[in-house]
Specification:
It is a single chain. The longest helix has 13 residues, at 196-208. Helix 9 links the parallel strand 14 and strand 15 (274-282). The strands form 4 sheets. Strands 3, 5, 6, 9, 10, 17 and 18 form a 7-stranded mixed beta sheet that branches. 49% of the residues are buried. The protein is of the alpha/beta class and 362 residues long. It has 11 helices and 18 strands. Helix 5 packs across helix 6 (196-208) and helix 8 runs parallel beside helix 9 (264-273). It folds into 2 domains: 2-167 and 309-356, Medium-chain alcohol dehydrogenases, catalytic domain (Quinone Oxidoreductase, Chain A, domain 1, Alpha-Beta Complex); 171-305, NAD(P)-binding Rossmann-like Domain (Rossmann fold), CATH 3.40.50. It binds nicotinamide-adenine-dinucleotide and zinc ion (2 copies). One zinc ion is lined by residues 105-106, 109, 111-112, 120-122.
Length: 362
């Protein structure tokens, strides 16, 4: 009897976790010990973990320049329920639904102090976070190192619906937000790549600006999603795209171009269709480069890369979702089919976002 009790106690301490164990290879589903919160920490029962294309870059691209130590559990786009809290944690209730802000900075540098932990100055570069060097949410439970990373979910938003908002929503929100001054009623924004991030970028542009929104993708299904997300025009990527964008903007070009792919070809399209004084914002990590010369991009075009978003911006994103202005198109997968989700993403078969829901049974 005692032996059986001990055995079941041991099993209760194990959970499933999708871990990166080697660069250039698929992640592996393994069993690890349930996390236990230390002082100030919180364990979240995962209700949804989004499968981001960045994870594919880690599995199939070059991991050589990624400053993370292996192994770690994937999943940087998470929401769930407060499961256990460490000593000193206040303001959270057990079972409360929460979104997990994922850019885990030092918490005290000037950037972190105002919630801009995505640009923590004590952790330059990629920083750290769940699924990015630290254990993420592709598991039954997620250890969150500080309660400040948890934002309450608005009523009516389930963790599985909310998970994509933490990255696929927040990253485009940050990119759009910094260019809002250039997005008036006579302006045009171009979204290149209408996948997990891009389809939410289209919705965010429509919800927060009066600009015309043009979407570009290689896939017919993604262009259809762009239209249903509110795009005024959806254009097939290729040699004719720049001309079509110019034609739709009276020959002037786009005020803001957001590139969610980041290949040589998409960066070239972005540079060629950006209007004088416009913004080209590179979000995609496709590994491409953008040649720069006096005449291209056009005069006073600003080019910037962006990383994730701030904690106050995540609160804005959740508020947009609560008001029905932002809704991720999702396909859910059980945890033991997470690799199928990533394979479908790699094959261009996901429309919107794949979300891993650990409680689902295959
Ligand atoms: P996704 O696979 O869901 O979407 C990518 C979309 O781009 C797909 O619809 C695909 O059909 C389209 N596409 C591919 N090649 C194209 C081309 N040549 N022209 C036009 N469209 C093309 O990916 P995602 O999860 O939305 O991520 C998009 C990119 O953003 C990835 O590179 C990812 O690593 C990166 N990312 C960056 C940040 C950041 O903070 N900078 C955050 C999250 C994701
Ligand atoms: Zn991501
Ligand atoms: Zn910091």
């Amino acid at each position: 009897m005692v032996g059986l009790a001990m055995l079941s106690f041991c099993y209760a301490l194990l959970m499933r976790s999708l871990q990166m164990t080697r660069w250039h290879e698929e992640a592996e589903l393994v069993e690890v010990e349930d996390p236990v919160p230390g002082p100030g920490q919180v364990v979240v029962k995962v209700g949804g973990a989004g499968a981001c294309h960045s994870d594919l870059h880690m599995m199939h691209g070059s991991g050589d320049n990624v400053p993370f130590s292996l192994p770690f559990t994937l999943g940087h786009e998470n929401a769930g329920w407060v499961h256990t809290v460490g000593s000193g944690v206040t303001g959270l209730e057990l079972g409360q639904p929460v979104a997990v802000y994922g850019a885990w900075g030092c918490g005290t540098c000037p950037r972190c102090s105002d919630g801009t932990e995505n640009y923590c100055e004590d952790m330059p570069g990629l920083g750290a976070g769940p699924g990015l060097g630290m254990d993420g949410g592709m598991a039954d439970y997620l250890l969150v190192p500080a309660a400040r990373h948890l934002l309450p979910l608005p009523e009516g938003l389930t963790p599985a619906q909310a998970a994509p908002l933490v990255d696929a929503g927040l990253t485009p929100y940050h990119a759009v937000h910094r260019s809002l001054a250039k997005l008036g009623a006579t302006s045009t924004a171009v979204v290149i790549g209408v996948g997990g991030l891009g389809h939410l970028a289209v919705q965010i542009l429509k919800a927060t600006s009066a600009a015309q929104v043009i979407a570009v993708d290689t896939r017919a299904q993604a262009l259809e999603l762009a239209r249903s997300s509110g795009a005024d025009l959806a254009i097939t990527a290729g040699d004719a795209a720049a001309g079509e964008i110019r034609a739709a903007t009276g020959g002037r070009g786009a005020d803001v171009v957001l590139d969610f792919v980041g290949l040589d070809s998409t960066l070239a399209l972005a540079a060629s269709c950006a209007r004088m004084l416009g913004d080209v914002t590179v979000v995609g990590v496709g590994g491409g480069t953008l040649p720069f010369s006096f005449l291209r991009p056009a005069y006073e075009v600003s080019v910037q890369s962006v990383y994730w978003g701030t904690r106050p911006e995540l609160a804005d994103v959740l508020a947009l979702a609560a008001r029905g202005l932002l809704r991720a198109e999702t396909t859910t997968y059980p945890l033991d089919q997470a690799l199928d989700a990533y394979r479908s993403l790699a094959d261009g078969k996901i429309v919107g976002r794949a979300v891993i829901v650990p409680a689902l049974v295959a």
